[in-house]
From TrEMBL:
SUPFAM superfamilies, per the entry: Multidrug resistance efflux transporter EmrE
Pfam hit, one: EamA
Source species: Bradyrhizobium zhengyangense
Keyword Disulfide bond: no
Protein name: DMT family transporter
Domain EamA: 16-142, 154-287
PANTHER family xrefs: EAMA DOMAIN-CONTAINING PROTEIN, INNER MEMBRANE TRANSPORTER
Chief location category: membrane
């Protein structure tokens, strides 16, 4: 029974992760209407610290040593700080929610290149073909999009997100894999709360309009994303190779684009849909080795 449950969890976790992670871009579009990016993120992370403190207080996990605490803080700044900050700033600079996931969607290419050297993971020729296929899919989704002006600043922020989530995922796998997730996440969220708070005081007016839309979106992002999807991400990192986990991010742009179309009317053309299909095929190819 336990084996069957583990097998079911292994099958369901990637699907649930992609769905949850995609809603992060949608939720961010809602909250950005009521607060500046870093201000909203400081509030979100402070809320998450409170939730994680309750979880840690009940579970009483083993706390990391000084080195583990430092590694957790660095991973938190990369995975949550620059990644979420870049995404929120991109959306605030007029990048549609459905497109804000596209540049971070290139993560599998960057992860495979680094993992092949840093973590000693062997990337097979078939996997490389899948990664290139996914890159082509993202390129199709990106075709004919504005890349200058305010949108250009947004795309730069998206590139920052790409680099940070890639390095953060690899850093987490290499240095934080043996740290209890409850203690490690609490350290990460404390570090990133300080990070966003300092940024908000340095660069923003810190005005918040506490609308119903803002509160509901903030609650979803804090609980479902910062607790749920991040927990799933770290579970996947522990149970699969970095390349396999990263390939899931190929699906996020397509799923986000569908959600954005349904909620905001962001249109998809034939080439973008073809790109989504290529991304889905790439995930299958890259993960095939690990499904056996």
């Amino acid at each position: 029974m336990n084996h069957n449950q583990d097998h079911l969890a292994a099958r369901a976790a990637p699907v649930l992760f992609v769905l949850l992670w995609s809603t992060g871009f949608i939720g961010t579009k809602y909250v950005i209407n009521s607060a500046d990016p870093l201000t909203y993120l400081a509030i979100r992370m402070a809320l998450v610290v409170g939730l994680m403190a309750i979880i840690a207080g009940v579970a009483r996990p083993k706390w990391p040593d000084r080195a583990g605490t430092a590694h957790s803080a660095v991973a938190g700044i990369l995975v949550h700080g620059f990644y979420l900050g870049g995404t929120a700033i991109a959306i605030a600079h007029s990048i549609p929610a459905g497109l804000s996931a596209l540049i971070p969607g290139l993560q599998p290419i960057l992860t495979s290149t680094i993992a092949n050297r840093w973590l000693g993971e062997k990337v097979t020729p078939v996997q490389w073909a899948g990664l290139v296929l996914g890159l082509g899919g993202v390129a199709l989704i990106l075709h004919n999009r504005p890349m200058s002006g305010e949108a250009g600043l947004g795309w730069i922020a998206s590139v920052v997100s790409l680099i940070s989530i890639t390095l953060g995922t690899l850093y987490q796998r290499r240095y934080c894999n043996h740290i209890d997730w409850r203690a490690g996440n609490l350290v990460q969220y404390v570090a990133v709360t300080i990070f966003f708070t300092v940024g908000a005081f340095l660069f923003e007016d810190r005005v918040v309009h506490w609308t119903r839309e803002f509160v509901l979106a903030l609650a979803w992002l804090a609980v479902a994303l910062s607790i749920g999807s991040i927990g799933l991400l770290y579970w996947l990192i522990r149970h699969a190779a970095a390349t396999s986990v990263a390939s899931l991010f190929y699906l996020v742009p397509a799923v986000t684009a569908v959600m954005a179309y349904l909620l905001f009317g962001e249109k998809l053309d034939a080439l973008a849909i073809a790109g989504m299909a290529m991304c889905a095929a790439a995930v299958f190819v890259v993960n095939r080795r690990f499904a056996a």
